[in-house]
Amino acid sequence: xxxxxxxxxxxxxxxxxxxxxxxxxxxxxxxxxxxxxxxxxxxxxxxxxxxxxxxxxx
Amino acid sequence: xxxxxxxxxxxxxxxxxxxxxxxxxxxxxxxxxxxxxxxxxxxxxxxxxxxxxxxxxxxxxxxxxxxxxxxxxxxxxxxxxxxxxxxxxxxxxxxxxxxxxxxxxxxxxxxxxxxxxxxxxxxxxxxxxxxxxxxxxxxxxxxxxxxxxxxxxxxxxxxxxxxxxxxxxxxxxxxxxxxxxxxxxxxxxxxxxxxxxxxxxxxxxxxxxxxxxxxxxxxxxxxxxxxxxxxxxxxxxxxxxxxxxxxxxxxxxxxxxxxxxxxxxxxxxxxxxxxxxxxxxxxxxxxxxxxxxxxxxxxxxxxxxxxxxxxxxxxxxxxxxxxxxxxxxxxxxxxxxxxxxxxxxxxxxxxxxxxxxxxxxxxxxxxxxxxxxxxxxxxxxxxxxxxxxxxxxxxxxxxxxxxxxxxxxxxxxxxxxxxxxxxxxxxxxxxxxxxxxxxxxxxxxxxxxxxxxxxxxxxxxxxxxxxxxxxxxxxxxxxxxxxxxxxxxxxxxxxxxxxxxxxxxxxxxxxxxxxxxxxxxxxxxxxxxxxxxxxxxxxxxxxxxxxxxxxxxxxxxxxxxxxxxxxxxxxxxxxxxxxxxxxxxxxxxxxxxxxxxxxxxxxxxxxxxxxxxxxxxxxxxxxxxxxxxxxxxxxxxxxxxxxxxxxxxxxxxxxxxxxxxxxxxxxxxxxxxxxxxxxxxxxxxxxxxxxxxxxxxxxxxxxxxxxxxxxxxxxxxxxxxxxxxxxxxxxxxxx
Lengths: 58, 735
Prior knowledge:
The complex is a heterodimer of chains A (58) and B (735). In chain A, 52% of the residues lie in helices and 0% in strands. Chain A has 2 helices and no strands. The longest helix of chain A has 25 residues, at 3-27. Chain A is elongated and about 55 Å long. Chain B is α+β, with helices and mostly antiparallel strands and 735 residues long. Chain B contains 24 helices and 28 strands. In chain B, the strands form 5 sheets. In chain B, strands 1-8-7-9-15-10-13 form a 7-stranded mixed β-sheet, with no helix packed on it. Chain B has a 7-stranded mixed β-sheet with strand order 16-28-27-26-17-24-25, with helices on both faces. In chain B, strand 26 (617-620), helix 21 and strand 27 (635-639) form a beta-alpha-beta unit. The radius of gyration of chain B is 32 Å and the shape is elongated. The model of chain B is unreliable at 728-735 (pLDDT under 50). Classes of the chains: A mainly alpha (58), B alpha+beta (735).
């Protein structure tokens, strides 16, 4: 049962890590817009092609 | 006059030379719009960043201080095809945001704790049915206590504080049994752990806090969201005034920056955006938005003007007053105060549930304690059973039942261009059984339109339109709009109070009043056909035409009325306008119960008569004169074009010309109310099953955990149905 002495602090530590990550998300405004980012990921403008002059795609 | 624009009040200055501004943007629908705005603005020199918030339909723009003027951002956005309005964050908003963040932090901590305690508890439960070492079990229980006690002290604060507040005020709310349950459960668990018992309820107490916090957070989210939307509404109206500086210069300034004592110039054709006293000038004022009356009133220096009216013929200088002391506003103020009292008598569904719930739970727990003691059980064991009753009845499902439905329904409404200003408006809207409409600006569109366009040939309309385009008079603008906004004719002279004239092809052309254009004979024919319309005549030599301009009925008004009837509502009109103007609208829409020429207090009395008969009134109106009635009615709706006061009094505001959102919101509200009731009944059913188990003493921590999370899950999933499967989707509006 001595393994518990290692496993439980480990489990708690992982949980705390998750909690810290959650607080980080809150502080940096990850939850302020829940709709936009799901579309943002589809954008390709980080692969900038030289001829791309698109500004308005309506 | 070349007036400069001043948007500096909206700009926020940060350290390190960065300026920023928030804008509410119309028509952001999809990722494409987001992409277009962000890319378009990023290419502008000087702009450091532009970020769209798709959920709130806002853009945050930052630029290097001094690199560009804030107006340039709006201009750039309009070139991209988006209408943007600068946005001033409301003062109350920061409080709400920090409250929301606080709750989210509590939620995070409670979630972390409940998961870790569950990890320990599941080990104990499985160990109990096999061969767990009592020392190990005690170790696990103490470890749970180590996590649970600080968590409860930190994350349980919203409930403890609220319970204390209620007790100090001598009342009992839902948080009192919750607090009692949590504190007793934790206390009892520590005691039994000390005595090496098999069961401890640390997991139950912390899970309870976690689920209840979810409900509390959703509630807060709803409140913040409605406030954000109300902020967007204010920005979308984008009201500005032309302020006269002491040196005589004119400056277009947002209303937010106007203070009492400022002098404001109001050009003919402009909407008056302030309350105040006329200093110089005389004109006619269209008060339809204020009184519902469509005939213009003559005003001169010394007279009071109200925000929301339209200046028709002459330029006015107005001195701004903070608290307007006009007789009309005084009267409306007094009526509003009276009307508010009656509204506050409504008891929310959740409060009604809480009132029934708290005494019932306490009585059951007490009866359990006494019952088991009478049965001969020693008191510590009887107390443990009584506490498990408190834990298991704690209103997880009850706390989630209503906020979850409200959040889902509000976002469904938002997609249909309806903004909910109060969460409980949904419940009240669902109960409505009679719909009372105002006419001017509600059943009809706020701006007048040409109604006899089919009887006038195209070249005449074009010629009149070119003349009309030179004027800002609302009637002239209606003709210019009907002619498709042609280029204005050159050298147009405006004769005050009569009309416009210009020389076209060597002959004088006139557009204006019937007498000015000597068109009495033609006017009589048109007037017979359109009795309620305002007439405007055009003469070019021997050619002559008379245009009838009237307020058109909103698109889909007929469908909306039919839909409301289909939902079992009776339809009535209460209008402040003349009966000749009301009758045609009523008959066009097939409404038989129409009253005209009502003053604000008479509208209130009419509503009183209806509510005395036990009717629940849905009032739909936009004018200042409707504001008391909107406050008084069981529930009220305003279009976005309404006066500020009317909008502030309304529970729900819809955007756009169509009237259909009224029927849509009623459908969603009915569905939401049904779901809320379903959820509440489910909570009752759950208790009916769980309480006997707890009273009998069979509620182990495992049973409590399964019951709590199961019921919360069911209620939440049920709430998700609030936004789905409506019979008629408003496709033009859906995001």
